[in-house]
Amino acid sequence: MASHLTIRALLDAATARLGERSETPLLDAELLLAHALPASRARLTSHPEDAATPEAAARFDAFLARRERGEPLAYITGHREFWTLRLQVSPAVLVPRPETELLVERALALFPAAPLRVADLGTGSGAIALALASERPAWEITATDVSEAALAVARTNARVLALERVKFVAGEWLEPLKRHRFDLLVSNPPYVAAGDPALAQLALQHEPAMALASGPEGLDAIRVIARDAPAHLERGGWLLLEHGATQADAVARELVVRGFRHVRSRRDLAGHERITEGQWT
């Protein structure tokens, strides 16, 4: 890509280049060029005739090549917006999805700002735990993950966002929490069936498989959490689980069988049943 091209020309060429690889080629091109320059997207719009330096054009070309190979935009830029937070991400963690914000919304709706003990299971980048911490300063929040690399990302986000009161511990789901009890357990566990063709998508191939797939039905992790949660919940406490768009009935059955009451599912903005919650009584 010629280094003397203007911002407008670079964006036009990149949009055409990404047309078959992305559902939002212009947006991707703008975000990648803004990252390469670096500059804001507003600057790109207000100064389309500015020329990029040879170094910036080369960076942009390299970013486009990675995007063409299906690498998620967030891994290329190194960050993702979630809730009101700007999170650092890497291939060690799942890219936070907008639908996961429903889990945060439900947690905040169930409980006021009074002191509370909360655990986020399989925290990844720390998205859920840090979003809750940003909204509820009085909550005592612990987050677990079996991946030390993921915990390193989460701790970095906590430090950058000045939310270091969130405690991060290594271990699978509830295992590292021993005899501790909580008022609220939240989790966005892996829930894709191991043989699901969706796993062959280029974008998903770049994300950690252990954060995506969970057994032949996609329910292995959810079953473990539902089984172990009662031993870690205070009476009247809640368990909130994100799951696949067709798994609400199966997840609800798991919670009912384990003795949860007031089991119900909530729909995301696309109309899919995305969250199932239950109260331990």
Low-confidence stretches: none
Strand content: 15-25%
Report mean pLDDT, rounded to a whole number: 95
Q: How many structural units, i.e. domains? A: 2
Broad CATH class of the largest domain = Alpha Beta
CATH architect. name of the largest domain: 3-Layer(aba) Sandwich
CATH-assigned homologous superfamily of the largest domain? Vaccinia Virus protein VP39
CATH fold call of the largest domain: Rossmann fold
Major sheet strand order: 5-4-3-6-7-9-8
Distance between the termini: 63 Å
What form results from the Cα inertia axes?
A: elongated
The number of helical elements comes to 11
Please provide the ordered H/E string of secondary-structure elements: HHHHHEEHEHEHEEHHEHEE
- Estimated radius of gyration: 21 Å
Summarize the amount of helix as a percent range: 25-40%
SS-based class: alpha/beta
- Strands, total number: 9
